[in-house]
Batch of 2 targets.
Target 1
Amino acid sequence: MMQLFPSTYFTYKNKQLYCEGVAVTQIVKQTGTPTYIYSKKYFEDASKEFDEAFRAVRHKIFYAAKSNFNLSVIKTFIELGSGVDVNSEGELYRALKAGAKPEKIILTSVGKTKNEIKLGLERDVLMIKAESEEEVYLINEIASSMNKIARVAIRVNPDVNPKTHPYISTGLSENKFGVDSETALKLFRKQKELKNILFTGIDMHIGSQITTLSPFVEAVEKLANLFLILKKEGLELIHFDIGGGIGIQYNDEKTFSVNKFAEALLPIVKKLNCEIIFEPGRYLTANAGILVTEVLYTKKNQHKNFLVVDAAMTDLLRPSIYGAYHHVQPVKLDESRSEIIADVVGPVCESGDFLAKERTIQKCEHGDLLAVMSAGAYGMVMASNYNARRKPAEILVTGNSFSIIRARETFEHLVFDEENYL
Ligand code: LLP
């Protein structure tokens, strides 16, 4: 039987899908498809819930902008009191444009360019997270040439298995991220020699879409030990950064609540007596968003039914790249229709271009609208222009009204960087 994704932000009223108080059909009448729609209330509730769960310790949330870097989305989190975790010069640019204060920005990335480090120092961001020995020395050198003291955290790879998709697992020793504990200790112990660095934190991020607590507990315990060793030796770090990675429900996976997350970690981090930092992305955004697409054709061969829709891997890459599951459901329910099992596929010239496989769904017709659920994180940010497709529009719903927060790309936009060279 056709399953509908459980959500209090995307619900059916009179068999029509709504985002908060606005009918999805009303939005796409104006914007066309494919279009991303986000619920502002979801952003607010998730952010408050996270904050509340950790009220027993001094903590700060740095929203991981990579999960959804639309300026209005970043701005929403800034207004909710969050800082921003940025992974590149481009995300730094976006965060500043959205109104983030540099002292509430963390600069991440396993491969920062000299320019990115310089920019971070020029802007005076809260801290730069170093991910290798060479990077620590380079930050020291650049800071020295700028007559600055760089606030630096070291990202430690705790070598735990986050039990998630291999592409989004980052905390195993075989992964490219961070440095091992011994190297971290060695670097922290060079504090006196590194005249233009002030070590302010220890950091981890072990992966994404993690649905069990044990990898977090194991990793936080390991890093807390390091933190306490350093403290004994006289190096007082002021931040302990747990990163992001909390898994959310896409299908029927069992996840943990943010309260359970806090319950598991609070006893460990309380002992550190420092500020605890989090960098959640997906938790705050994934189930805040849907991608709405129109059925272009229905077809059938000896093996399968296909729903050919106007959204593609260029709009939502996750199914193609990770085999990720996203619920797909009709915008208008019609119980009089029978159900079929179908693949939902896009117009791009690749067999890897699919949004869903073998789903039970009500029979569709040309022109029907479908909602691809849980698309608020790593959706639009991973969109591309392959096949010279224009990136979709983005909409933010607030209560009974909605606003366009990114217009659909134009054809002029597609050739903007090239036409002067013709
Ligand atoms: N902090 C760091 C250093 C990160 O690398 C990431 C995500 C986060 C925080 C936020 O993690 P989250 O809370 O969202 O799990 N494109 C993939 C996800 C890649 C995650 C990369 N890093 C996907 O679509 O599943």
Note: The first helix runs from residue 24 to 31.
Target 2
Amino acid sequence: MPRPLNYDLHCHSTASDGLLAPAELVGRAAANGVDILALTDHDEISGLAEARARAAELQLRFVDGVEVSISWGGITVHVVGLNIDPGNAQLQQGLQSIREGRKDRAKMMADDLARAGIPGSLEGAYTYVDNPNLIGRTHFARFLVEKRYVRDVKSAFQHYLVQGKPGYVPHQWATLSDGLSYIRAGGGLAVLAHPGRYKLTRAEMRKFLAEFKDGGGAGIEVVTSSHSTEQYLEYAILAKEFGLLASRGSDFHGPGESRVDLGKLPDLSPDLKPVWHDW
Ligand code: AMP
Ligand code: MN
Ligand code: MN
Ligand code: MN
């Protein structure tokens, strides 16, 4: 049997909270043997043009993507949009509206860290920010590592920046129906990102998936760096049950920071219908 093409449909550049510029990211993907790459920055599409241009030079197939931040049932859920039209005005305005709250949120996060005895985190986090409209928790995590409050980014998210810990500020992102409508307006395919990361019971996950499908959701990440081998199976079963297309993506953020590199994931099980079945 020929080896299936290597699709990596989820990763981040310096346009959001990744460590590599879009062109560097594409170069790394090509070197890793990725055949088809989607760049999916958080709430941001400004890195796509550079990535697409570099992909053309390297003869790597490129998919325009985005990872949309959504609030649902009191938690944050991420939905990846694939094959979006970056020129679509409704999509652009929707993403802009999601990005808008990030600066004030960052100030409040820094105030909360200061109350916990950690000064200077706003300025510190911004030293890691390339796109000032896209400051996020990862930039604060890198500052906390730099100042030795924690050993690495992963531990920063154990001791800070999450619910119940210093630096956490609840935030209202897009509603599920708005987030999905932005992706649909841009002609994209909406894919639930890393479903195993959400603290949802089975019943809540089913409720979510029913609403997601109703709102036009089309796919679900089955193979992602967030999942264990057991979870590959668990979400493969849910994909089939809900008639969702299956996706594969590393969610790579940067060398030394991400456990799984671009393209370095197991293949999707051949009994799943992949998001790329008609590409
Ligand atoms: P934000 O959109 O500002 O809330 O930041 C979300 C980002 O924080 C995610 O995309 C990850 O890059 C990062 N993140 C969240 N939780 C963790 C974790 N447990 N370990 C490492 N990174 C995390
Ligand atoms: Mn991220
Ligand atoms: Mn995510
Ligand atoms: Mn991501």
Note: The beta strands are 7-8, 36-39, 61-72, 75-82, 174-175, 189-192, 219-224, 245-249.
